[in-house]
Amino acid sequence: xxxxxxxxxxxxxxxxxxxxxxxxxxxxxxxxxxxxxxxxxxxxxxxxxxxxxxxxxxxxxxxxxxxxxxxxxxxxxxxxxxxxxxxxxxxxxxxxxxxxxxxxxxxxxxxxxxxxxxxxxxxxxxxxxxxxxxxxxxxxxxxxxxxxxxxxxxxxxxxxxxxxxxxxxxxxxxxxxxxxxxxxxxxxxxxxxxxxxxxxxxxxxxxxxxxxxxxxxxxxxxxxxxxxxxxxxxxxxxxxxxxxxxxxxxxxxxxxxxxxxxxxxxxxxxxxxxxxxxxxxxxxxxxxxxxxxxxxxxxxxxxxxxxxxxxxxxxxxxxxxxxxxxxxxxxxxxxxxxxxxxxxxxxxxxxxxxxxxxxxxxxxxxxxxxxx
Length: 372
Description:
The mean pLDDT is about 95. By secondary structure, the chain is α/β, with parallel strands linked by helices. The chain is built from 13 helices and 11 strands. The two termini are about 30 Å apart. It holds the Pfam family YhfS-like_C. This is Aminotransferase. InterPro entries: OAc-hSer/O-AcSer_sulfhydrylase (IPR006235), PyrdxlP-dep_Trfase (IPR015424), PyrdxlP-dep_Trfase_major (IPR015421), YhfS-like_C (IPR054718). One of its GO terms (molecular function) is O-acetylhomoserine aminocarboxypropyltransferase activity.
C-alpha cells in the first residue's frame, strides 16, 4: 500500500509551537483577562467581543499572519466564508484534479462557482494550467490534507507555482486536519487565507479560524457583522486553550500511529497484510486485511472499546481510537478498499491499546468462522 503521508511536527517542534502561542498570550492578555471566561456582544469600537479580538491576535501571531478571524461553522464555515470573500459568487476556481471534499463541493455549488482542475502532483502541469486559463481563473483552492491515496504534492510548492504565473490571484488553503500538526499552514507558505476548524484543535464545537492577509481577513470579518455571527468571548477563550494544548497532543498521536504501522507490518495481528500512514482527512493508519472483513471489523470494534464514529476527528471528546471506514474521497478512487481496508485514528491511545483491540477483533472473527 503506497501512500505519501504529510510531514508532521515532532514532539520538540510541537512544544516550540505551544511556547510560541503562550508567549503571544502574555503580550496580548493581562493575567486577569486570561482568567476571565470572556465577554459577550458587539462592541461599538471593534464590532465583536473584546476577548475574541485578543484571541484572534494570538492566532495570527502563532501562524505568522497579518490577521485572523474566528467564525461560525467550524472548518466548513471558515472555508465557505473565505471563498466568498476571496473569490466571490460565480467565480472560476482552480482545484486539484481529485474528488472534492463533499462539504467543499456544496459550498462551491451554492456560490455558483465553476471549477477548473489541474494535477497538483505535477508542478509543470499545474503551471501550464495556470498559463492556459490565466484570464479565467478568479481564485485557487488547495486542500492541505490528501484527497487521493496517491497524492504527493507539497503545499508550498503548489502555492509557489501558482504565484509564479498568477501573482495577484487569491489562494485559499483548506488546512483542516493539518493545523498545528503540519510545520506550516498555507498562509505561512504564501496563501492569501488559511482555514480550519478549532474543534479539531481541542476547541469548542462550531468555531472556525480564518488566518491570512489583513485585506482578506477584513473582507471575511465584514461578512460577519451581525451579533449572531460573532464568536463570543467564552467560545474564543475555549478555542485559545485548545490551540495551546493541541500541538503536543497531535505530535504524540503521530508518534503512536508510526509505532502502530511498524508493529502491524511486523505481523503482530493476524489477517493484517499491510498498513500505512496516510492523511485520509485526519492523520490515520490504513489497515488492509487478507479478506473482505472490513465491515465485520467495524461492527465488532465498539464492543472492544473503539469509537464507532468520529465526533470532530481528534476533538476534545475523542479519547479512544477510532475504527472507521476509509474516507469518501479515498473510496471514490479505490472502491475495493471498502471491503478490505479500514482507517484507524489513534486519538489519545497508545500503540499497545490499538494492537490489543485489533487482536481481540481478529479472535472474534476467527471464532465466528470456526463455528460456521
